[in-house]
Amino acid sequence: MAIGIPVKIVVLTIVGMAGLAAMLTIIDNGEDAIPKPIHADLKSTNLIVLSAFNDTDDINMAVEVIDSTDGTSVKRASVVLSGHGAAAVNMTNNDGYAILRSKKTDFDLKTGEGYLRLDVKAYGFQDYANEFAVKIVK
Q1: What is the pLDDT of residues 5-26, one digit of tens each?
Q2: Taking CA atoms, which of 74, 94, 115, 119 is between 20 and 30 Å from 129?
Q3: What is the pLDDT of residue 32?
Q4: Adjacent-strand bridge partners of 81
């Protein structure tokens, strides 16, 4: 009877390993399984002087999003510029560009200056964040 227990353990181990091997063949370990690095570049100025705008003027910020590995444009990436009570959101077009619009009155700048954070997310890519993307001055 003592010989039955080790045989059961060996059989269960073999069956378990076969199941694990089957699951591993199903899992895709190709390049698409690992998120690629992404980079966002402000194509307009990274300094906003609020006193230079009227209350009704649009403040437009152009952002380009690219794949860091090969430099190609990333389309349909979510781009957010936020801070000081304001947020501007848009998606990149087929060329990897997004225009973020806000108004002078959107910002609640309690001190004389501050920074806006840029966040970018896209399917198949690592998230990108820059906490000091744009300096804002009263």
Answers
A1: 777 888 888 888 888 887 777 7
A2: 94
A3: 64
A4: 88, 118
Check residue 37 and report its DSSP letter.
P
Whole-Å CA distances, 11 to 1, 7, 15: 16, 6, 6
C-alpha 15/C-alpha 37 separation (Å) is 39
Q: Rounded to the nearest 5 degrees, what angle is found at the Cα of 40, between the Cα atoms of 43 and 117?
A: 90
Q: pTM here?
A: 0.74
Query: Rounded to an integer, what is the distance from CA 58 to the centroid of its chain?
Result: 25
Q: Which two three-digit tokens encode residue 32?
A: 């698409």
Residues in the chain: 138
| Structure letter (DSSP) for residue 111 | S
Distance CA 23, CA 126 (A): 26
In angstroms, rounded to a whole number, what is the distance separating the alpha carbons of residues 6 and 77? 56
Q: Which of 129, 63, 127 is nearest to 95 (CA)?
A: 63
* Residue in the block written with tokens 């690219």: 66
